[in-house]
Specification:
The strands form three sheets. The chain has a five-stranded parallel β-sheet, sandwiched between helices. Strands 8, 9, 10, 11 and 12 form a five-stranded mixed β-sheet that branches. Strands 1-2 form a two-stranded antiparallel ribbon. The protein has 13 helices and twelve strands. Helices cover 45% and strands 13% of the residues. Strand 1 and strand 2 form a beta hairpin. It has 320 residues and is of the alpha/beta class. About 8% of the residues have low confidence.
Length: 320
């Protein structure tokens, strides 16, 4: 009986020792890594600072390139260095030299230790990558300038470059203050009313990022004067904007930019509008209108320059 009791005691002791050992090992592994909550609320655990990073969106391309050396990036998105939508230069892209589509096989073949996606990325892609043990960080689609700053800081945390992220955001804030100081000279009653178009309708509903950028550029967003999801032609006429901003990104190679401009200019419904009568039909590259990174500062400046020529003539954007 004593032998059986002694055996049970020894077994329990060994079991507890093994359990403690495993807990200690797990604790040590956890302490060697770090966890970050992404913009979708998921917890992303990183064993160490990622050295083989893939970005699947043009916004995360641009943020990532400002946070880490190109040696740590193994692939940019399909839109990288497309001058109509991406702020990455061809030179910056060539340092990495590879565009990645949201294709599971292609991504896995590159053995990444972090993949950056957005909330618009197919959830199936995220799930498949997680199932094979690849960390995935989901970045937001910001609705305003402050959320864009948070997006930069979040990505900085997951790539373990928080100081650099703070540095970028501080520079953004400094430049925005300089721009605001110049634009604040424009009286409220002299702010221009603008309506921007994509290739199907007016864009920039109230509460969207583009609406916020126009507001920060001291421009009245005509589309935000209505709460409708789609701004009809009749509503555009009723708003009677000072300026039309037309699309420039031929994303599917099926759009004729100049033909669309002529269609707008010659539309009988628009012939008496101030924008048409005063020939205030302008083009601002779509990368400024659909910005998804720290380059929101340049975008606000570009919009203001288009609407108020000369006001920001001497203002240059610098990220220190």
């Amino acid at each position: 009986m004593r032998k059986i009791f002694a055996f049970i005691v020894i077994f329990i002791f060994i079991f507890l020792m093994v359990g403690c050992s495993n807990e200690k090992k797990q604790s040590e592994e956890k302490n060697n890594g770090y966890s970050v909550v992404d913009d979708s609320g998921r917890s992303v655990y990183m064993r160490e600072s990622p050295q083989r990073i893939i970005s699947l969106t043009y916004g995360t391309d641009e943020i990532l390139s400002a946070l880490v050396n190109s040696e740590r990036i193994i692939g940019y998105s399909r839109w990288a260095a497309d001058p109509e939508i991406s702020f990455l230069t061809e030179e910056e892209f060539q340092k990495v030299g590879q565009r990645i589509y949201p294709n599971i096989e292609q991504i896995m073949s590159l053995n990444p230790d972090l993949v950056l996606v957005s909330v618009a990325t197919d959830s199936g892609v995220v799930r498949s990558l997680e199932e094979v043990g690849i960390p995935v960080y989901v970045a937001s689609s910001p609705h305003n300038y402050n959320e864009m700053c948070e997006k930069v800081l979040g990505i900085a945390r997951v790539v373990n470059e928080e100081k650099q992220g703070i540095k970028i955001v501080n520079s953004m804030n400094e430049e925005i203050k300089k721009i605001e100081k110049l634009l604040s000279k424009i009286p409220d009653n002299e702010r221009k009313v603008v309506i921007a178009f994509n290739f199907t309708a007016a864009m920039g509903r109230k509460g969207e990022l583009f609406d916020n950028m126009l507001t920060m550029a001291h421009i009245v967003n005509g589309a935000a004067l209505r709460n409708n999801t789609i701004i009809s032609k009749e509503e555009v006429v009723n708003i009677n904007p000072d300026i039309f901003l037309l699309p420039t990104w031929n994303f599917d190679n099926k759009q004729n930019i100049n033909a669309y401009a002529e269609e707008i200019k010659n539309d009988p419904a628009y012939k008496n509008l101030k924008a048409v009568k005063n020939n205030q039909i302008k083009f601002v590259p779509d990368k400024y209108k659909y910005v998804a990174s720290q380059h929101i500062v340049e975008s606000i400046k570009k919009l203001a320059e288009a609407v108020y020529p000369g006001v920001l003539e001497e203002q240059k954007i610098e990220y220190k």
